Amino acid sequence: MNIEEYNYFLPEDKIAQTPLSSRSNSKLLLMDKETGKLEETIFKNITSYLKKGDCLVLNDTKVIPARLIGEKADTKAIIELLLLRNITNNTWECLSRPFKRLHVGSIVSFGGGILKAKVTEKKKEGLVEVEFIYEGIFMEILEHLGTMPLPPYIHEHLQDNSRYQTVYAKHEGSAAAPTAGLHFTTELLEEIKKMGIEIIYVTLHVGLGTFRPVEVTDIREHHMHSEYYILSEESAEKLNKAKREKRNIYAVGTTSTRVLETIMQKHGEFIPTHGTTDIFIYPGYVFKAIDGLITNFHLPKSTLLMLVSALSSKKNILNAYQYAIDHDFRFFSFGDAMFIKILSKND
After folding, report:
1. What is the reported pTM?
2. All domains of the chain, ordered by start, with CATH?
3. Which of 87, 95, 196, 223 is the most buried (most CB within 10 A)?
């Protein structure tokens, strides 16, 4: 379980810097999760690989302008906070930089004092808990002062913030987009529904657990940071019914996958619930909830690459990634997509 087993070489020009003008015109690489067989198409043609009765599970979290840059009240040092998780009321867990300049009691001011953050707890790995002090409505202030937290490998300015949101984003709280869902348009989702395919929503607010790099040699020693999830009663009922009727459940994104697998692992069925998950899925894991996965192409040595390898095999996934590199697929958040499933003779 050495981390280097999940490494691959990606030319920098394969990293998508901007979204395509049309969400559903991205490429789609289909891979048979058992045989590794590959087929290439366009994402809007995904309807050809779905059938009546299938379930698509989407993460309806909404990205907030979670990156704040301010100054420490006493020294005027520049401080950056990335909001990760709302703990209670005005208390948030944040990733801070530079971490060493903050201490319990430190005050960071944003927008000339419109918003202040008081450090209430200093944790490890750059994490702090802060209490925000302000007058008015917090999310309105955040919209004014914060910026969209694009990943560090994206260097181009995003012209339209809505392109880093899914068209079905609903519940505010994410520090990053569930990027597999960025390929869907409202029209494509309507077409899918008309085919008799069930759309089911879960919520996982994407935080550090999804994108934190693995920094240990043996991946089994890596600990995932917890992220908050919700499964509604309606969604639980639909998922249980699909399981009883042996219909396919396809997760859209690794975040949706982690919600479903967490609940099935804990309860053996889908129940209405909420909480935090630090589930880490890597080869050897036996999937209990999903039959397939729609996902983007992930960073080398990432927990997401390990998750998709668990669904198929490391060999199949790395072979598919090499095919994608050789055939000019676009990688990472604004890149192209994969659909990992059993490809039937009719596909």
Report:
1. 0.94
2. 3-63+160-341 (3.40.1780.10), 67-145 (2.40.10.240)
3. 95
